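hey so i finally got around to running the thing on that chain from the lab meeting. sorry it took forever, my laptop kept dying and i had to restart like 3 times. anyway pasting the input first so we r on the same page abt which one it is
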Amino acid sequence: MLPLPAALPTVFGMPATDLLAWVVIAAFLVGAVLDRFDRTVAIYWLAGTWVLFGGFWLAVFPHFAFEVRSFVEGGLALFAVPASVYTAYLLLQGRDRLVLLSKAVGVMGLIYHPTQAIPVVRRVLIEQVAWQTLMGIQFLGYNPEFTTGPEYGYMNKFVFSEFATYIVYACTGIGSMAIFAGLIIAVQAPLRRKLKSFALAIGVIWVLNLVRNVFVAIAAGKGWFLQEPVVQFAALAGVEKSHASFWFAHSVLSQILSVFALVGITWGVVHVLPELLGVLEEVLFVATGEEYDLEDALGVQDPVRADGGQPDGGD
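ok and heres what got predicted. didnt touch it at all, straight out
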C-alpha cells in the first residue's frame, strides 16, 4: 500500500481512505483464517476483498495523480483498480495460488498501515530517516539548515538557499519493506532462510532509500535540474518552475530507478528464498495475462517444486 491523502472526508475522526484501508486489511486477514477451515469459503471471501481493494486504489488515485503529480504512483494506483478486480475473477476461476498472494497482501497492510496511522511510530520513523538523510547530505559537503517541517512539526526539513525539502512518510521506504516482509512471512520455508531474505531485502531497501533521499534533497535544494528542457517537461505535468528540479529528481528519476532497484532486490531475495517464485509468477500473470516460469528464467530452484512436498529444514 501507499501513503494516504490527508485532506479527505473523515469517518469516525479519520480520513475515509484510512478507514477503508483498515477494512481491507482486516478482510484479507479474515480470509487467511477462513482458509485454514474451508478453502472454498475463503476463496469467495477473498475475491470480494480484492474487489474492495480495487475500490481503495480508485479512491487514492486522484491524490497521487493530481496532488503529488507522480505519473509512476498515479499510474500504479490506476492500474491496481482493474488488476484487483481481475485477481478476484481469477480466484473464482480456480487459481488457488492467489490465496497465498492474498495472505501476503494482508500481512503487508498489517505491517505498513499502523506505522502510518499511529502518531508516535510515524514520528520516530520519519525523524530517524531525516537524521540519517542529513548525515548523508553533510557527508557530501553540504550543510543545509535542519528544522521542523510543515507537517506535524517533526524535525525533518532541509533548507538550502535555493529550495527546501522535507521527509514525509513515503520517504521512509516502509512501503517497499512491507511488500517484501509480507511475501516472506506468507510463504512456507525454513525460518533461517526467511530471516536471511528478510535481512537482505530490508537492509538494501533502507540504504538505497537513504541514497534517494540525499539525492533528492540536494538536487532540489541546489537546483540541479532547472535547465529549460526539464522546466518545460515539468510544466506539462502542471509543475511550476521553482519546483521543477524537485519534481524531476523525486517523481521522475528516483521513481523510475526505484522500479529497477526493486527488480534487483527481488532477484536477490528469490535466490535465498525460491519459495517466493510461485507468488511472483501469479503477480506477473495478473499483470500480463501470460504464464511465466521464473524458476528457469532466474536460474533458481524451488525446493517445493523439486520434491513435490514441503520445504526441508535446511538453509
